[in-house]
Design goal:
This protein has helices at 16-31, 41-78, 102-121, 131-140, 149-161, 170-187, 192-211, 214-223, 235-253, 271-299, 311-323, 334-341, 347-366, 374-395, 403-419, 422-433, 439-451, 473-482, 505-514, 535-543, 545-550, 569-579, 599-628, and strands spanning 499-500, 519-523, 529-534, 583-588, 592-598. By secondary structure, it is mainly α. The protein folds into three domains: 23-253, Orthogonal Bundle (Clc chloride channel), CATH 1.10.3080; 271-465, Clc chloride channel (Orthogonal Bundle); 483-605, CBS-domain, CATH 3.10.580.10. A three-stranded mixed β-sheet has the order 1-2-3. It is elongated, with a radius of gyration of 31 Å.
């Protein structure tokens, strides 16, 4: 305030983030009142999972509706391309008697790329590229996605996909659902661990709805976080979210699976050998796909001397030029997958589409275009499997009866191969086709492909297992300490000052000034532990002589906290954290008080074990590299 009563106005910048928080503030106050949810774990997860399922299901329905009509408007109505659709998706009817405007098919992906680049660059740069990888990165960090990301991701992805960009719709909806889960977690004031689980459930709900695969969506969201692990902690929450999201989506668009697929059995066990060959074929194509995605990004698009928002337009133009040769590579390619499942396409054409889809998807996503990787992976797997099936049927018609069955196995195998998600891929493809008849061939082919591709993944942010994720650093500490006991750390020569319970304040002052210890075990005449004296607690009493006349050290004793020699170090660490002590007495049932466990000793031993683990991992990697090095 000024002396004359005037006020000094300060300039305060209001960011978009502040506006977003102001918009959700009223809801934050309402939701924070549901304290009953914090008392019941079952009720809490059921309500949270259902809420995320509702949000992700509605978001998926809106995204799908706008995308389908957008694709119809640009590709069918404007460009005249009657793009094929799968049996379970006919939201918009094609207009007959049109002429394809090839010049417009070339320009449309570039136009969509430009729109996407502008939207993402100036709104939320983290929404560019493959949405699933962004979800994985957010989980391994703080489980946080900015509130604006779902909206930006949805608009940018529709701009790409509706104009023919070669990508999938599941990556965007995975990030959209994860963003909604993150936002709900912030509204409910959840901690980082629970917010990560909400993120997981949101992704599962989005995948479940867009693929109409509740079980596949739940497992895929939990599986793609790691190459060799599964996020089991969030599986129940993900299943709840997936079921609710699936019911909402199918209530709007129907329960028919995306693909029509006939009932198929493989009576001849020899046919499994041909199915296994799909896994071998998927390995080099998966490696090419992974390397081309990362290689074009760093080796081509990031080196172009143009502004960042223009890069998706360049990628879109390349996609349009390839579409002059084969229009089937535009969009997600679900209609072409349907034809492969029915065994309608020739071998040479199928192999050609596999190479072209790898190239066009790399053009779209490596340039920064917003989209998903699952649909292209399913497309590549379907055409590769279909090609293997056609060849096998030609060579051995008496053994191989249905080439289309190989396309289904190829879809699951290639997705499992590049995403390192065998269970999610198996359930998802089975639910998308409404057929569980080929579980054995899918399992055989997928496991074979994964065993040969363990060193790489299509997702850059995917980590090896839980112990390599920041989300489970505390778990690594706990599990490592559980394997060690107090007796493994206890040093008999460690200084320990034991006080009798009948000690006077004068004696206590003499002991306190002659040692650096701050925690003292107190024993009775039989050497039994009766309590703890902490100098931090009694410092005020020691400084005032008037208090000595009123109290004795016995009156200031804390409860007799102790650890046993066979007790795990993780349990001992909990006691250190609960009490705040730096030293805790060690008590044996037969011998009584035998020593003192120092927090510093515990942490030193943990550091030694951690360094040993790191050296072991490094040595294993070096040994593996030596084994694989050419002679």
């Amino acid at each position: 305030m000024l002396e004359g009563g005037g006020q000094v106005e300060t300039n305060k910048q209001i960011s978009i983030e502040d506006i977003e928080l102001d918009l959700i503030a009223p809801w934050k106050h309402v939701l924070s009142q549901f304290t009953v949810l914090r008392k019941s774990r079952f009720l809490r997860w059921f309500v949270y999972g259902s809420a995320i399922g509702v949000l992700s299901g509605l978001a998926a329905a809106l995204f799908f509706y706008v995308l389908e009509w957008g694709a119809f408007f640009f590709l069918d109505y404007l460009a005249g391309y009657d793009f094929p659709l799968p049996a379970g998706e006919h939201l918009a009817s094609s207009i007959p008697g049109k002429h394809v405007l090839y010049w417009l098919l070339v320009l449309l992906p570039a136009f969509g790329g430009l729109l996407s680049g502008l939207i993402v660059t100036f709104s939320a740069p983290e929404a560019e590229g493959e949405g699933t990888d962004a979800y994985i990165e957010a989980f391994h960090r703080q489980g946080f996605i900015r509130p604006r990301v779902p909206l930006v991701k949805g608009m940018a992805s529709i701009a790409i996909l509706a104009t023919g960009g070669s990508a999938g719709r599941e990556g965007p909806i995975a990030q959209i659902g994860a963003g909604l889960g993150s936002m709900l977690g912030r509204l409910m004031k959840l901690d980082v661990r629970e917010r990560r689980l909400m993120l997981l459930a949101g992704c599962a709900g989005g995948l479940s709805a867009i693929f109409r695969a509740p079980l596949g969506g739940a497992f895929m969201a939990a599986e793609i976080l790691y190459r060799e692990d599964l996020e089991t902690e969030g599986l129940i929450l993900s299943v709840i979210s997936s079921l609710v999201s699936y019911e909402i989506f199918t209530a709007i668009f129907g329960r028919q699976p995306i693909f029509a697929f006939p009932r198929i059995e493989f009576p001849d066990p020899l046919e499994l050998l041909f199915y296994a060959s799909i896994g071998l074929v998927c390995v080099p194509f998966g490696f090419l796909f992974t390397k081309m995605l990362s290689g074009l990004k760093t080796g081509l698009f990031e080196k172009l001397p143009i502004r960042r928002e223009w890069l998706p337009a360049v990628g879109g133009l390349l996609v349009g030029l390839v579409a002059l040769w084969h229009k089937e590579i535009l969009g997600g390619g679900y209609g072409t997958m349907q034809r492969a499942l029915l065994g309608e396409l020739p071998v040479a054409f199928l192999f050609t589409l596999a190479f072209l889809k790898i190239a066009t998807t790399s053009f779209t996503l490596s340039s920064g275009g917003s989209g998903g990787i699952f649909a292209p992976a399913l497309f590549i797997g379907a055409v590769l499997g279909g090609a293997v099936g056609r060849l096998a049927h030609t060579w051995c018609p008496s053994i191989v009866g249905s080439p289309g069955a190989f396309a289904l196995v190829g879809m699951a195998t290639f997705l499992a191969c590049v995403a390192k998600a065998p269970l999610g891929a198996l359930f998802m493809v089975s639910e998308m086709t409404g057929s569980y008849d080929l579980l054995v061939p899918i399992m055989l082919s997928s496991v074979l492909a994964i065993l040969l591709t363990q060193r790489w993944s299509i997702f850059q942010n995917q980590v090896e297992n839980k112990f390599h994720s920041p989300a489970h650093q505390s778990d690594r500490l706990v599990y490592m300490l559980k394997g060690l006991a107090v007796k493994d750390v206890y040093r008999p020569d460690s200084p320990a000052t034991v006080l009798p319970e009948d000690m006077t304040f004068t004696q206590l002052r003499r002991v306190a000034t002659s040692t650096n210890e701050s925690v003292f075990p107190v024993v009775d005449n039989d050497s039994r532990l009766t309590g703890i004296l902490s100098l931090l607690e009694i410092r005020a009493a020691l400084s005032k002589k008037s208090v000595w006349e009123m109290l004795s050290p016995r009156d200031l004793l804390l409860p007799p906290i102790s650890v046993a020699p066979d007790e795990s170090l993780s349990a001992a660490l909990v006691k250190f954290l609960e009490t705040g002590f730096t030293r805790i007495p060690i008590v044996d049932q037969r011998k009584g008080l035998i020593g003192i466990l120092g927090l510093e000793d515990l942490l030193t031993r943990y550091q030694q074990e951690l360094q040993k683990s790191i050296r072991g991992e490094t040595g294993a990697e070096e040994g593996s590299a030596e084994q694989k090095a050419p002679l």
